[in-house]
Write a structure and sequence with these properties.
Blueprint (H helix, E strand, L loop, with lengths): L29 H12 L2 H4 L1 H9 L3 H25 L6 H9 L1 H37 L5 H18 L4 H25 L15 H14 L19 H30 L16 H10 L1 H35 L18 H17 L2 H29 L17 H17 L1 H25 L6 H10 L1 H16 L9 H10 L7 H11 L9 H15 L1
Helix pairs in contact: 1-8, 1-10, 3-9, 4-9, 4-10, 4-14, 4-15, 5-6, 5-14, 6-7, 6-12, 6-13, 6-14, 6-16, 7-12, 7-13, 8-10, 8-11, 8-12, 9-15, 11-12, 12-13, 14-15, 14-16, 14-17, 17-18, 18-19, 18-21, 20-21
């Protein structure tokens, strides 16, 4: 049934609104974008995952990182476009909620929350593995789970206390980490310790390629932070240029660093040294690498740097994850208590505590391989949704004209389709567990939306609904757009338009004739009683006549 009132058309916007970028101070240049992206990317992907990937594909693990990067590219470029159109806090959750509506927003928001907390938990797992090595020097005995849980309590408290310079601490720590890793790689090459024949990938059979795909899906979590900077698109100078350039530059730098370092690890570390006494992949491969290259003292230094890096990553991870719950509560999709700020520290303490408890459950219930797999699975889904979102918005923009991106992803629609297909392929390679995990997160999100969010929000027409209608019944979609223009022009609220209001509606639709006199002719032809006013049906008939004449 056709909408009959303005409330039925909430969400149809015919003129650009919400120009958030105009209210934010643009102070971040290209270098800042690259630094922020690299700071968010470098962490457990280098300090823990190489051994897990080696267990799957041997010395060719470096290729898994390269393949994962190729999958990230479409998601990164499409997210850059969405961020330049919606430069506000909340990142991917905001984009999905605005494009697909509150139900998908709830489902995706919880999935992204799970992805970030799992990535932070993964960093704590890596932290504890390196701490175990240091304990041999300290003469202490603390289990890895105890160490991880103890650090989790500490960083959760720090988040509640409201440390405002987490990012400023994280950046120099990650810089030190990168310098150390590059230094170890150069040292190994100059010493002649590296035998790169051991890093040659084995891709002789279909099964080999499938396993490589599984490894690529596993290590994709290493790139999860590369697009974090998109969430602050409103603070970037010339975002249409600097945002995509910065993201792609950091992605290239990170990929080269990952590939070269992992290949050098495989070339230096004996195959048996990638596994512990029980045959399980070690969780501190950088320590093993440093020990072979420079001895126990260098290994100790590497372990300390690893602990600092992954602690800072986990600290920022809880910060980011808890803000998803906060943003969803702000949008009335989750209970209002998650939006509460601590009276003294002005932080969303309830959201932080719930995030910390979920991380604790993950640490004691899921093994390291599954944690990485689930985190990567959720991230792949997010990248695929970024691609779908751009496809939707490119077609639905006429009815949702608030979408005015300063940057547009290239090669539309081929880039988006490529991102969806490659992401789906990696999900397939990951196996049923990752799919079940993603489906479970979606199901929980749906139940929360039905049980809570749906009763607390105002319904609106989403671009996704418009997109579907444009593909199934384009004439109905156009009628709805024209009806929205009618009510927008009806400033008197009497469901009638004057000639001037009719002209305004036509202008909003982008149908205005070159000759203003023609509009007068169409208006008076529709005004069959000559009272200078037309109702909705007359207005729609006038527009249909205009469209027919133009053809």
């Amino acid at each position: 049934m056709r909408p009959v009132g303005p409330k039925d058309l909430a969400g149809i916007v015919l003129t650009p609104i919400e120009t958030v970028s105009d209210t934010l101070e643009r102070k971040l240049g290209l270098i800042s974008v690259v630094v922020i992206s690299l700071s968010a990317m470098i962490g457990s992907g280098l300090f823990v995952l190489p051994a897990l990937a080696y267990d799957m594909v041997g010395g060719g693990a470096w290729l898994a990182y390269v393949l994962a990067a190729l999958v990230v590219i479409p998601g990164a470029l499409n997210k850059s476009e969405l961020a330049s159109a919606m430069p506000t806090s909340g990142g991917s959750y905001v984009y999905i909620e605005r494009v697909f509506g509150p139900m998908f927003g709830t489902m995706t928001g919880l999935a992204l929350w799970a992805s970030f907390l799992l990535k932070a938990a993964f960093a704590l797992i890596g932290f504890s593995a390196y701490l175990m090595f240091i304990q041999s020097y300290l003469g202490t005995e603390v289990s890895s789970v105890q160490a991880a849980l103890g650090m989790l309590v500490l960083i959760s408290l720090i988040n509640i206390l409201g440390v405002k310079r987490i990012k400023s601490v994280q950046t120099p720590v990650v810089a030190l980490s990168i310098l150390m890793l590059v230094g170890l790689t150069v040292w190994a090459i100059l010493n002649g310790d590296a035998d790169y024949s051991r890093a040659r990938p084995t891709l002789e059979t279909t099964e080999d390629w499938v396993t490589m795909g599984e490894a690529a899906a596993l290590v994709l979590v290493s790139y999860a932070g590369v697009t974090k900077v998109a969430a602050i698109g409103g603070e970037i100078k010339n975002p249409g240029k600097n945002l995509p350039s910065g993201i792609m530059s950091s992605l290239i730098i990170g990929t080269v660093l990952y590939a070269v370092l992992v290949a050098t690890m495989a070339a230096v570390i004996p195959p048996e040294a990638f596994f512990d006494s029980h045959g399980h992949p070690i969780e501190d491969p950088v320590r093993a690498f440093a020990e072979i290259v420079g001895g126990s003292s260098v290994a100790l230094f590497a372990a300390v740097v690893a602990i600092l890096t992954m602690t800072s990553m986990s600290l920022a991870g809880i910060l980011a994850a808890s803000r998803y719950l906060f943003a969803m509560s702000r949008d009335s999709l989750l209970p209002a208590s998650l939006e509460d700020l601590h009276q003294k520290y002005d932080t969303p303490h309830v959201a932080i505590i719930i995030t910390g408890l979920a991380m604790a459950w993950a640490l004691v219930s899921i093994d390291v391989h599954q944690v990485a797999e689930f985190a990567s699975g959720f991230q792949i889904m997010a990248y695929m949704l970024m691609c779908v979102s751009v496809l939707v918005m490119r077609k639905a923009t006429r009815s949702h004209a608030w979408y005015q991106p300063e940057y547009r992803a290239p090669l539309h629609p081929f880039l988006q389709v490529f991102g969806i297909l490659t992401g789906g392929s990696l999900l397939y390679f990951m196996g049923i567990e990752a799919v079940i995990g993603a489906a479970a997160a979606g199901a929980v999100g749906w139940m929360i939306y039905v049980g809570y969010g749906k009763r607390h929000i105002s319904q609106r027409i989403s671009p996704w609904e418009t997109f579907r209608l444009m593909n199934s019944a384009p004439e109905r979609a156009e009628e709805r757009r024209r009806t929205a223009a009618f009510f927008a022009a009806d400033t008197w609220g009497n469901k009638l338009l004057t000639l001037r209001q009719f002209t305004s509606a036509v202008d909003a639709l982008g149908m205005r004739a070159d000759d203003p006199d023609k509009l007068r002719v169409y208006f008076h032809a529709a005004d069959d009683n000559g009272d200078g006013l037309i109702h909705l049906e007359q207005y729609l008939m006038a527009l249909e006549t205009m469209a027919s004449d133009e053809e």
